[in-house]
Design a protein that fits this description.
Order of helices and strands: HEHHEEEEHEHEEH
Oligomer: single chain
Number of strands: 8
Shape: globular
Mean pLDDT: 91
Low-confidence stretches: 179-187
CATH superfamily: Gcn5-related N-acetyltransferase (GNAT)
Strand order of the largest sheet: 1-2-3-5-6-8-7-4
CATH architecture: 3-Layer(aba) Sandwich
Largest sheet: 8 strands, mixed
Radius of gyration: 16 Å
Distance between the termini: 22 Å
Length: 187
């Protein structure tokens, strides 16, 4: 995939029929993280049950290439996120008018071509269309690639949060500009 192909990337909601492809992408990401010594996603999470629940909630979004290949999966959930209620640090905004990016993974066949960055842009536009004030995301401290992307996309470090199993994650937030109809047209 080239940068030219990136312009042909589309985003669509995931369906239960996409679950095998989503699981394959997640398993590929788990393998990459394991090889890099990142303990994130190494204890059977996210599993088919978690992703089925995401799909049932219509929270999964897929990046699809011009040839129909699923290139990326991500879960976009509205706040409040129970894992974000307690933070060692401070969120940039208060309230629950935010969108959370969870379970984002790129197919290894098309990795390193800007697809993850394109998905962050898509999530920002979707949050703006919904009138939300910010986007939040978390990642493992050892996940340097995701930390780099999060910073590149303009998110600010806010502190540390803990997952339901007690695992710590670095937390980030991007405050969105006020609603702008011109931005909505490009989504």
């Amino acid at each position: 995939m080239t940068q030219t192909d990136l312009r042909q990337l589309t985003f669509r909601p995931g369906t239960l029929t996409d679950l095998p492809a989503i699981m394959a992408i997640i398993q590929g990401a788990q393998g990459v993280m394991a090889a890099q010594g990142i303990p994130q996603w190494q204890a059977g999470y996210p599993d088919q049950a978690v992703l089925t629940a995401d799909l049932t909630q219509q929270a999964v979004w897929l990046a699809v290439t011009a040839t129909g290949e699923i290139a990326l999966t991500m879960t976009l959930l509205p706040g409040p996120d129970p894992n974000y209620q307690k933070i060692a640090g401070d969120w940039l905004t208060t309230g629950t008018d935010y969108l959370v990016i969870h379970r984002i993974a790129v197919s290894q066949q098309v990795a390193h071509h800007g697809i993850a960055a394109a998905s962050f842009t898509f999530a920002r536009k979707l949050a703006q269309q919904r009138g939300l004030v910010s986007l939040r995301i978390d990642t493992h401290a050892k996940n340097q690639a995701m930390r780099h992307l999060i910073a590149k996309m303009g998110y600010q470090a806010c502190g540390q949060v803990w997952m339901a199993d007690g695992a710590p994650r670095l937390a980030y937030e991007l405050v969105l500009p006020a609603a702008n109809p011109a931005l909505d047209q490009g989504a």
